[in-house]
Structures are given as structure tokens and as C-alpha cells.
Write a structure and sequence with these properties.
- InterPro entries: Polyketide_cyclase/dehydratase, START-like_dom_sf.
- Pfam families: Polyketide_cyc2.
- By secondary structure, this protein is α+β, with helices and mostly antiparallel strands.
- Strands 1-7-6-5-4 form a five-stranded antiparallel β-sheet, covered by helices on one side.
- Helix 1 crosses helix 4.
- It is elongated and about 45 Å long.
- The chain starts with a strand and ends with a helix.
Amino acid sequence: MNQIEAFVEIDAPPDVVWDALIAFDTYPEWDPLTRTIEGVAVDATGGSERSDAFAYRPRPIGPTVVAAEPPRRLAWHDRLVVPFAFDRYHEFHLEPIGDGRRTRLLQRETVRGALAGLAFDEARLERAFVAMNEAIATRAERRIAA
């Protein structure tokens, strides 16, 4: 098992950071690792797109959201075609700080499987996670400034 974590403190409350985080259609603009996320955020009961209780309907192969607890936690699982060859568990934790006006964001990925040792590039992932966290912070802080 391999794991990497990156933290950032954001000058925006968790609900604003959450909104930036779940804007899946914007990921190609700022995320160096997830160039596309296909699918839509839908209410777990089949209702509106902007519900507090949503699931993610993914493309047939790709990330599947396994936890969405607005505005605290988002996690998805992804695998390389065959189970246990290269499985990724990616999560974001949002913690309110400064009387809830700021957010501490933790991004973590755990990689397991037979190919994990070959495909896990810790230095590259750490740089990407720092860039992703900075991009999420910038997006959330812009929403507050607007």
C-alpha cells in the first residue's frame, strides 16, 4: 500500500470549498491528474442535481464516488480494469477553522494492488496534489471575493 497526503488552508468556509470541489465539469481546467470526469452529480433518490445527498453516476470505467458528505468529505474509488491490479482510493476532507470562516483541506490517495509499486510516483503525485489544493483554494477564494 502506498499513500500520499497534502494539506492547504483556504480563506473560505467549507461550504464554498465544497461547491468548488464538486464542480466536476471544471476539473479539466485545473486538475493535473483528473483530466476528465464524465457523468453527473445526481440526487441519490433520482431527484435534483444540486442536492445535499448525491451520488455520482460515473462512466463505465473510471472513478466512482463512494462517499459524499457535504461539506465535509468526498471520496472516490478507481481501478485499472482488473480488481487488485491498481486500485486508487482518493479522498478530500474539509475541516472548518477560524470560527468556520476558513477551511483546512486534506487530500489523500491510497494506492493498492500488484502494480502499485510500479505505477506509484510519490514525487509526481505530491506536486500534483499541491497544485490541485492550490487550485481549489484559488477557486473557492474567488467565489468569496465575488
